[in-house]
Amino acid sequence: MDQAERLKLLSEVDVLEPLAPEEIDWLSQRTPERSFKRGDMVYAAGDASEVLLLLLTGRIRLYEIAAGQEFTFEVIQAGTLFGEASLAGRTHPEYAQALEPARVGLLNLSTFWQLVREDPEVNARVLKLVVTRSYMNRSRMTDLALKAVRARLASLILDLLQSDGVVTRNGHYRIAAPYTHEQLATMIGAKRAAVTRAFGKLQDIGCVELLRRQVYVTDLALLSRLAVEA
Fold first, then answer.
1. What is the pLDDT of residues 55-68, one digit of tens each?
2. Which positions ≥6 away from 178 have C-beta within 8 Å?
């Protein structure tokens, strides 16, 4: 990756967008990178958390393990900060795994706090990100407790559309990244077979389609109604 591309990727990280080009250049000189292959662990639960992580390319899933079952509560898209446990001086509470080849910037805390002192908007964006992430996680846990698998799947698809959705030429919606039924299952606390059945029902109703592992939403209003069912 040449320097121009690296600067571009750093400038596209959500919390760094307020920075001027010279600040991005300054940051680039102080932010080393690590590369991960698909399936690599970025960190494990209980690992020391000493830096903030900036996902420059690829996708990272955050998950926990309970009763021997994995529960994916977020998929981090490129251009997003994660690993914010370091801000509280805590170890990582979850696992982070690369879903595809990824490049991650390692932002040490001294550099981050210097950025915050010089540009409080960075701190405001980090705070908003953390609060939003916490809200989404609580919402997902509420779904697990109160909703059937079909409604949980519908709700998840809507969440993925918000973070990674594109509009197709025929006016429908598509989740840009591919997901297997197994991956979707870990995101709603269900078995793969149950997700396959639920997805089949959503297809039969006419609100979603699955083409080459990519989810298309053909009736957004109907899917939204199904997502709030108990």
1. 999 999 999 988 78
2. 212, 213, 214
